[in-house]
Amino acid sequence: MTKVYVSSVIPAPAAEVWKLVRNFNALPSWAPFVAESRIEQSAQADQIGCIRSFTLKDGGRIRERLLALSDYDLSCSYAILESPMAVENYVATLSLTPITDGNLTLAEWQAEFDCAPDREAALMHQIGNGVFQTALSALKHRFGR
Amino acid sequence: MVKVCQSTIIEAPVDEVWAILRDFNGHDRWHPAIAFSEIEGGEPVDVVGAVRHFRLNDGGELREQLLALSDRDRRLSYCLLEAPLPLMGYVASIRLKPVTDGNATFWEWRSEFQPPAHRRDELVRLVTEDIYQAGFAAVRNLLKRRSVGSPVETRPPQAIVAPTPPINMPHAPSRIAPGQTATTAAIVVERYGGPEELRLRDIELPPLAPNEVRIRHTVIGVNFIDVYCRTGFFDLLKPPGVPGMEAAGIIEAVGSAVSGFSAGDRVAYACPPVGAYSERRNMAPELLVHLADDITDEIAAAGLLKGVSASFLLHDVHAVKPGEIVLIHAAAGGIGQLLVQWARHLGATVIATVSSDDKARTVERLGAHHVIVYSRENFADAVMRLTGGRGADVAYDAVGNDTFAGSLAALAVRGHLVSFGQASGPIGNWDIGRFASKSLTISRPNYAHFTDTPEKLEPHVARFFQALRQGVVKVEAPTRYGLADAANAHRDLESRRTTGALVLMPRP
């Protein structure tokens, strides 16, 4: 099992950041590499089990299932159903924690997955830097004062 | 039940912050409210169930018990057992997380307790501001002092055992080399942190260079400098690397350009570069010492670095004269024991400080004229009382933060403070103008500056071995640990519960 962890400090209160990221269908509005997204079968975007199907700006298509969403912990977990990346058993969690000193937010994004051993380093870099940290940087920028 | 949760971002790597916070007894070194702390019964600081007994600056005494500690999650929790305030049912936890863009740390401190209703707001504010927020600021300042330095506090804090960084630092290779390349078992620090970062691994042993010898270690010395290397307090070790600066052993092979040493020679050393925590190593022979038949490997490994240090502290940094009054802190420790015996032999009156009654008995046996248990008694007052108000001519202080102010106060007019370590934390900033009130002298010796060439080192080695032979100093049998057990040796050393020297035994 390979694990990836990234984190970042977002210059806004956690409740405000959560309003944006709790929407499982909202990736195109803040993740710079996502072109468009829809929730399959007209489900609600906060319904556990719903599936988002989104297209990357490079054309790749990904389907992910929402596994958990907690408005108490400010966290959501999801699994990849289909993607161009050769990963299996991929489960990721995005969570927010308030930083009381300055009313900021710690955003953490982590994933676990299985993959071919020779692909591990490249995938960790691609997911950790290319996806998670890039998206958190965008979030940081968006709330930047 | 009220809940308090405070969190902040500290601009330092998470392992560095964790190394400070995981020490359950270390809060008196950074939290401004705490004057003194000790672990009851001499338990290691990171054992679940350990109880810390501490005193606040205002005199209040508290006891708190460690309920959980996880180095993996960088999390610990504890509860209050006794306190002067009604913080009933107080359970607190601390957790750290890395911030991966940049190199910062998220630190959350939360607790629950049940205050009496009429004192609720007051107690919540006390915990929030005076404990948690003040603690955040204190750790931030501690790290800033370490990294930025100031005219008084050096960077890295220089200690007697803080040689200048060596040029060719041995690095553990990232993987075991294939084929016929030799390997050796060694303790590798992959990243700065707690004792758990000391892990046994097989590492590559590079081919012998013409100007090197290969040593098979028989006994390896453990010193406080190794702790500073492990935590990153000194940058003598760059991870991944092998710590350790003292060992005895047998020469296995000699490079073509080496003279004066042959295979089979018994040798010892006490010098950089780091790398002694290993079964075998290659090394330049300049600072190696031949061992005579009457000096055992164990005594050499347990005593050489400390003996050489004691030699220059007592003869060069301050030349102790008959009739002088000498104050020695941490007198039951490895170097403290040597200082006590040797200073007495030089004709001085020896006043020793220790942290417990057991240690007091040890130090009395070694010949100290007076022993002060500093956890029970203000040692500066005691020194003044014992000397009829005169004070000590010289104070040897490797404790640092906890004792520096008291050492100044315990000195006589024209007294000399030799500050050669900071086992309890850096000494902070001092205005030297105030030293004029007693015309004090301060020294901050650096081990390397007294030992980095054969010409400088040799007289100290000869003097130490001579002192051993004549029975001027005795090195008691050290406490032994297996090489693989280095982490426990560090835990014991840091918990302040050891007396005498600690050594690691590689596999025979």
UniProtKB/TrEMBL annotation, chain A:
<dbReference type="InterPro" id="IPR019587">
    <property type="entry name" value="Polyketide_cyclase/dehydratase"/>
</dbReference>
<dbReference type="Pfam" id="PF10604">
    <property type="entry name" value="Polyketide_cyc2"/>
</dbReference>
<protein>
    <submittedName>
        <fullName>Polyketide cyclase</fullName>
    </submittedName>
</protein>
<dbReference type="InterPro" id="IPR023393">
    <property type="entry name" value="START-like_dom_sf"/>
</dbReference>
